[in-house]
Amino acid sequence: MVAVADRPGASRFLWVSSGEPHAIRRRELLSKYGEQIRKLYGYDHATAYQVIAVVITQFILAYAVRDWDWWKVWVAAYVVSGTLNQNLFCAQHEISHFLAFKKPSYNKLLALFGNLPLVVPVAKKFREYHHDHHIFLGIDGGDVDLPTVLESNWITGFFSKLFFTFIYLSIYAVRPLVVRPKAVTIGDFVNWAMVIGVDVGVLYFWGVKSLVYLLAGSLLGGGLHPMAGHLIAEHYMFCRGQETYSYYGPLNLLSYNVGYHNEHHDFPQIPQTRLHKLREIAPEYYDSLYAHTSWCWVLWRFLVDPSMGPWSRMHRVMREGTPDANEKFIAGRCQTATESNAVEAKKSCDTLLTGGVNALQSTMGGKSAARLIHKHNENNPNNYPM
């Protein structure tokens, strides 16, 4: 179906019948380069060293700004704290895959430690929801990274997209709790106690300016900030039919190579310091994909291009896809998803609009994402990715 620019909501989504692209490409790559690729699996302590250094730096700077003029605090919050706290948010992404240490428990402790300057507790729930994002990419009810129909209806013009982008990290954090809340666990209480305890300590001993420096860094660094460009760049559709996008530019140095996003989704068990080697092993699969070279350009294009918005995402009903659609995707060297025909696409969007996610899954013959997620998380209490 062709996305219709003048229709609201689900009718703008691009509906596809091929399966989750990274699982398919992973099988193709392992069949050709399995031995070379498996040598890249593992972990890298370099991530831990960087996280520790950035956390210490942030608290030193938070102490330093306690007596600054407010305008200086705000400038430092955007330029410095925004960069460093977005660095720590990207670290949560890397650590959620247990790629800093061999033992999962060490990775969990590092995630909690890296969460301390962010002011808002995110480590525990981010790991769970990000795990689901990998398993159910593009599936309504499973991938809470997908903007909702409500967002697609409301965020339509330049100024609404400007506001949407400015508070994007807040939306990114709140959407999963509204769309599909998860049970609170002991791990959540530990996460909250540690982060809120540090917040109270910073406020009591250093004052409000130090806390504002840290909190504003988290909010500003996740909005209209060069480092936040990856949040739009990763899965918003800049090339029709391509679901995930890599970024090959200098800001990868500050973001744990999160820009190597196709490579990461294909093999989430490869640490960030080795993802470039995967691209070198199989250039025929990666060099032909559309890729970004500037996150600032990504933000600008998202804002000024009227054809782009929260609806610029691909949706699929079944993770596994249909055999014919998958064969077509493979024949194209795993580049462009197979689009649903007009009748299937209209049926999907109408069902989503009138009956919601559960009705969509049932009507289209797909398995319930919610049931699959519950079963998978039940069998994998550590939420270790595929």
Automatic annotation (TrEMBL):
<dbReference type="InterPro" id="IPR013866">
    <property type="entry name" value="Sphingolipid_d4-desaturase_N"/>
</dbReference>
<dbReference type="InterPro" id="IPR011388">
    <property type="entry name" value="DES1/DES2"/>
</dbReference>
<dbReference type="GO" id="GO:0005789">
    <property type="term" value="C:endoplasmic reticulum membrane"/>
</dbReference>
<dbReference type="Pfam" id="PF00487">
    <property type="entry name" value="FA_desaturase"/>
</dbReference>
<feature type="transmembrane region" description="Helical">
    <location>
        <begin position="212"/>
        <end position="233"/>
    </location>
</feature>
<dbReference type="GO" id="GO:0042284">
    <property type="term" value="F:sphingolipid delta-4 desaturase activity"/>
</dbReference>
<feature type="transmembrane region" description="Helical">
    <location>
        <begin position="46"/>
        <end position="65"/>
    </location>
</feature>
<comment type="similarity">
    <text>Belongs to the fatty acid desaturase type 1 family. DEGS subfamily.</text>
</comment>
<keyword id="KW-0472">Membrane</keyword>
<dbReference type="GO" id="GO:0046513">
    <property type="term" value="P:ceramide biosynthetic process"/>
</dbReference>
<feature type="transmembrane region" description="Helical">
    <location>
        <begin position="186"/>
        <end position="206"/>
    </location>
</feature>
<keyword id="KW-0560">Oxidoreductase</keyword>
<dbReference type="Pfam" id="PF08557">
    <property type="entry name" value="Lipid_DES"/>
</dbReference>
<keyword id="KW-1133">Transmembrane helix</keyword>
<keyword id="KW-0256">Endoplasmic reticulum</keyword>
<dbReference type="InterPro" id="IPR005804">
    <property type="entry name" value="FA_desaturase_dom"/>
</dbReference>
<keyword id="KW-0812">Transmembrane</keyword>
<feature type="domain" description="Sphingolipid delta4-desaturase N-terminal">
    <location>
        <begin position="8"/>
        <end position="47"/>
    </location>
</feature>
<protein>
    <recommendedName>
        <fullName>Sphingolipid delta(4)-desaturase DES1-like</fullName>
        <ecNumber>1.14.19.17</ecNumber>
    </recommendedName>
</protein>
<keyword id="KW-0443">Lipid metabolism</keyword>
<feature type="transmembrane region" description="Helical">
    <location>
        <begin position="154"/>
        <end position="174"/>
    </location>
</feature>
<comment type="function">
    <text>Sphingolipid-delta-4-desaturase required for the biosynthesis of delta-4-unsaturated sphingolipids and derivatives.</text>
</comment>
